[in-house]
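Researcher: Can you fold this with flavin-adenine dinucleotide in place?
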Amino acid sequence: MFEKDYDVIVVGGGHAGAEAAAASANMGSKTLLVTMNLQNIGQMSCNPAMGGIAKGQIVREIDALGGYSGIVTDKSAIQFKMLNKSKGPAMWSPRAQNDRMRFAEEWRLALENTPNVDFYQEMVSGLLVEGDTIVGVRTSLGIDIRAKAVVLTNGTFLNGLIHIGEKQFGGGRAGEKAATGITEQLVDFGFDSGRMKTGTPPRVDGRSLDYDKMIPQPGDENPEKFSYLNTDILKTQRDCHMTHTSALVHDLLREGFDRSPMFNGRIKSIGPRYCPSIEDKINRFSDKDSHQIFVEPEGWHTVEVYVNGFSTSLPEDIQYNALKSVKGFEKVKFFRPGYAIEYDYFPPTQLKHTLETKLLNNLYFAGQINGTTGYEEAASQGLMAGINAHLKINEREPFILKRDEAYIGVLVDDLITKGTEEPYRMFTSRAEYRTLLRQDNADLRLTPKSFDIGLASKERLKKMEDKHHKSNSFVHFFRKTSFTPEEINPILESVSSSPVRQSDKLFKVFSRPKVTMEHMLQLESVSSFVNEHEFNSEVLEQAEIQVKYSGYIAKEKNNADKLHRLENVKIPDNFDYSKLKSLSYEAREKLEAIRPVTISQASRISGVSPSDVSVLLVFLGR
Ligand SMILES: Cc1cc2nc3c(=O)[nH]c(=O)nc-3n(C[C@H](O)[C@H](O)[C@H](O)COP(=O)(O)OP(=O)(O)OC[C@H]3O[C@@H](n4cnc5c(N)ncnc54)[C@H](O)[C@@H]3O)c2cc1C
């Protein structure tokens, strides 16, 4: 049935598993993707959307590295928005609404078209371990499949328990079985495990809604896209709509609170802080008598609609009665009720920066199993685990992204250094160097690195180099080309910026806050330079950011360089912290448990104070 020996087995075909399989296979590893249902590869368990604040930057990074999430998103998008466009470019965050069924189909096709990926549908119920190294997996039919490395991406499926009101039943997602066996075996090997919770809103029949009572939410007039490769930009888009809950809706929901698993103690685990259920919102913000609801189509052609903002595990009759009182939902018909799910996760401080476990060699964890929430967070971990599994079994150096190089670097470092006790999602505020980690420059930051390890294609590298050279030459042009007061003053007056008396370099006037590329293009010298070199919109955007934010970017690079000095002070593998009596008790305990590899990582562990860092530096001769 199988190749005798795989290089890499990926368990689970969600966002993490799909990226992991693609990465290891594209780098040359013979890869087997084992998943419980081949129909559900790349399934969006919750809302049909990719990206958003900080998450959009992650998808761009995945794409820049040669992952598939950006391409799949572009191919299945039904609406695109660049969020935060009124703020600085570090905050611009792409978000797409997707056709759920097409998204999964595009993922499946992308993997089927990837040489080196084999597929098998079954539940993995155990791991094959020899000594302290993983050597394969055992399926529920009792079939053993061997591999040099295994990536676990079980998502919300490990001992998953679904709650709707007082009813509870096993499941990894509505309509799908829970996965059993793996948690218990890992705990026997000495792993710590915990429980987390998440939830989802009801899905309803769009034909039963009155959209005239809601506010349309169209996509951007000039939509962009996620992939740096040549995917298509949307020519038509589907609108979302907005409506609101009311005091009456809240009262109707309250009628079910005594049967709510959230409030009657049945659900004990912690859910995502920033995606609270509607009952949680009513409870926590009792002074508010209205919350927003976004009505999101599930695809181009289906009538199914996702009720964003109404996540709930209240009894289904309560969900239905309350929703019927929302404006536009008076005649609503349900496709599926909302529900909550509890599942096992493994505290991620048990992992190295490569996402390999510290306890078992060549075993990698990625995605929701590590305590994260979100498709983007999961996909990026899958990509990194797939890359590192391939590199490890080929005895090559690990691929680790630093905090000033990628949101993915921040994500992994946060997880393995600080751990997480509630579902972890990415925010721009988690990144110290977010001016450097923009969505527009993920290719410039990451594609060369990925090409060097053998993942990003030549085509991708060439496109990035072209953009790099062209935007640099454009910035150089602004630095060396002068303007005359006669040509620039009408533009400055039009934006109420003070006029100039003498000629100066274009760079200087372009740096003024209200002057944009659009204004610059009104100058004959600039527009002919652009036409002569055939610059596209990406090059124009990149050059504009490089000019207008050069001061901020330089300052942040300088700060990042300072961090690198601590990053370069390595702590030996078997360092004995008990020898350092002047460390605080808490610091010693945390350092022993997490075993940071550099002083910089040690300094980010909660409980390790600046004076503990000094003790370490002195001991290490620095
Ligand atoms: C009800 C619900 C609500 C959610 N709400 C939100 C939200 O509001 N916001 C948000 O950002 N995220 C939400 N999520 C989370 C989001 O779906 C996940 O973060 C993301 O899908 C995780 O990706 P993953 O690849 O880690 O796992 P998943 O997408 O869960 O995929 C896991 C895959 O592994 C397979 N699998 C599991 N165990 C085995 C096994 N033993 N053998 C073989 N195959 C196996 C499964 O079949 C599945 O294909 C929600 C998820 C659920 C279920």
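Model: Folded with flavin-adenine dinucleotide in place. Residues 11-17, 34-37, 40, 45-46, 123-124, 153-157, 172-173, 179, 182, 198-200, 275, 341, 367-368, 373-375, 378 surround flavin-adenine dinucleotide (CB under 6 Å).
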